[in-house]
Hints:
The complex is a heterodimer. By secondary structure, chain A is of the alpha+beta class.
Amino acid sequence: MKFLKILTILLLIQFKAYALIEVDITRGNLSPLPVAVSPLSSDKNSITEFEKILNVKDLGSEISIIVENNLRQSGLFNPLEKDAFLQKPDIAHFKPRFEDWKLIKAQALITGKVEIIDEKLRVEFRLWDVLAAKEMLAIAFTTVPTNWRRVGHIITDKVYERLTGEKGYFDTRLIYVAEEGPKTKRIKKLAIMDQDGFNLKYLTLGNELVLTPRFNPTNQMVTYLSYFRNLPRVYLLDIETGMQEVVGDFPGMTFAPRFSPDGKKIIMSFATDGNSDIYTMDLENRVVERITNYPSIDTSPSYSPDGKYICFNSDRSGYQQIYVMKSDGSSVKRISFGNGIYGTPVWSPRGDLIAFTKLHKGKFYIGVMRIDGKGERLLTENFYQEAPSWSPNGRVLVFYRETKTDDKGEGFSAKLWSIDLTGYNERQVLTETDASDPSWSSLLSN
Amino acid sequence: MKKKQNPEEIKEQVRQASEFEKKELFDPNQIAALIDKSKEETAQTLKKNEKLTQSNVKSSFAARLTLSQEDALKAQIFGCWSLPLGLPYQENLLVRIKLRLKPDGTVLKSEILDHARMNKPGQGFYKVLAESALRAIRLCQPLRVPTTGYERWKDLQLNFDAREMLEG
Lengths: 446, 168
């Protein structure tokens, strides 16, 4: 009986205990995450070797600067000034004094070591959560010394992925059309560079006009248009070997070639007698298949990442709009219904969005919409801009923007720009010459 | 172009409504009773004696802080939470963290309630979000908690919900 009484009292206390208070946190800080990128440390012998082989004095610092710049450009991170660092790089790499890093407001810390072993570059780096005082990531790899800039990009990709949950886009390249000379007499060459503007190479001499280079998403092949006897032809170019071939001679004009997600087909449009339709070509057997057959201008096709759908633009409704269809050409559906004219649709590698160029009331916009056409967001507005191309993680778009020519016919320029999906982080991509028609490669380290 | 949000600004606005900023001028017990009718249950817990007795348990099982108390805590954490902006929007962007606090707001223990999701394949975003929430708590502590009623709020659950911010 006594036991029952005690049990009842205990139960009463149990039931009358305080309920857990819940507080909903629905807003956060939009400022970039403060991160400290400590220079990678090296032993004396390696430092001498770096200078001898690469003509770089302090490779560890140079690599950390690449990482810093990448993180800053992403708009998501705020690399802290190195002058404020209190701990030496070699000690920080093995045992960071988190209190010191906390003091300078770092929330994440990147440390590392780079050395020469058997003529190879051996790199190890760690990512630390300063507030939790724990290691988040530790990776080591070797590569040839000439790849040292890529080391910085690979470190950034891994750090970015660990801190954001999505793959990075730093160990990538941009191909574009380099332009020189007056507007009426432009010399256009194919150019390729790392996404941060380094390692620029010209792939064509500028004898022929080149247009719309596009990367194969699975390797380092490129397809582009070049004029031959006043007719554009589709070319394939292997960037590694420099080998180039004509994909085929097609009747009429050929436009907007682009690879399928598996890299095995090219999708493009052919124009004859004022009508333009979409075709694919199997690169293995060179069989051409007609996808659309409509008395209108159907062009700019782009596959969904799973290869099941194609978005394209067409003026079949009277104005140029964006349409989606199955990859066999069936179930065509218009998805853009806003004011203005839509063009250059490109399916995101993530699969969730379609980027486009829009012309409305004399202004050009780069925007995105969901694949059903809903949720249109215009990210940037300008006098003239077009041709968005996605970063491989589907978070950033690169495009080109032209400036107006003044009354004297001067002042014209074409430059590459990038913008992320928030619409806030807009930056010019620096190029040696004027530039247009950019295309972003997939990750090189995949 | 949309104007970028300024969390600091928001923080200040919310702060103005916070009782914690006014405690030097006013008796917080009186203010709480005046501005928040729903918080009558706090009368017992606001007594100096914070020892949990059966009598005060009976009349105070509130599962909420007063609005002003909640606002103060939210405003503090808003400023500390660096949202991982790279996360793709999806419905499942909620991380629940249970805290055991010291009377001064320092965190004694934190527990992610859906911890199993942290290492599930395809849930990388959840881990990133949970870590960002934990960083916010660590950065913010001691948390801006009420000066009284410790027994009521010593266990506290924070629900970090990124959906609104990442919807775009």
